[in-house]
């Protein structure tokens, strides 16, 4: 997602969160980052003075690095998010440091980025955000980086969305992963909760980042 095939070890958002919070009326009091990888955005969150932080990262190796990078300064959970509470298989690659790994089977991704080979699998624990116990009123922003699985994450977060003011997520306009949600379907789902896409950057051509703001 953010940085599907960026430089090794890098994971850069094509939409700048600092610019977004200055441009739009959203004051982040707490942020939930789904698909945290190594926590590369942590320094940005610190710079913005966000005290309440939750990172979800399901892959074992990534989570160990995340713990080393972020330490005890945020709440870290080795979990995937979706619309069910169950164990699920992830398709894992190592050429891009696991940043392209997904619960969904890679499709067009294999053609667009042939250098990234999904040569491993890992069983991870998946939960619904709505069923996860935390002080939801202290968190009003979502960052989602889950390689085409965004809609399932949001379906499992319907109650949580009542407290959310902004969402920064990767979006797709082609089937990079099998049955991945397209941006227009994400727009339609989030419109039911009064979220509208106000910024989009198609950095990857077939994929990019989008910012949704609650009206």
Overall description:
The protein is α/β, with parallel strands linked by helices and 215 residues long. It contains six helices and ten strands. It has a seven-stranded mixed beta sheet with strand order 3-2-1-7-8-10-9, sandwiched between helices. A three-stranded mixed beta sheet has the order 4-6-5, with no helix packed on it. Strand 7, helix 5 and strand 8 form a beta-alpha-beta unit. It is globular and about 40 Å long. The N terminus is likely disordered.
What is the C-alpha radius of gyration, as a whole number of Å? Answer: 16 Å
Give the N-terminus to C-terminus distance in angstroms. 25 Å
Q: What value does the average pLDDT take?
A: 92
Bin the strand percentage: 25-35%
**Sheet/helix structural class:** alpha/beta
Main sheet makeup: 7 strands, mixed
Fraction of residues in H or I helices: 10-25%
Count of runs of 4 or more consecutive helical residues: 6
Written as H for each helix and E for each strand, in order along the chain, the element string is HEHEHEEEHEEHEHEE
Strand order of the largest sheet: 3-2-1-7-8-10-9
Uncertain segments are 1-11
* Overall spatial form: globular
Number of strands: 10
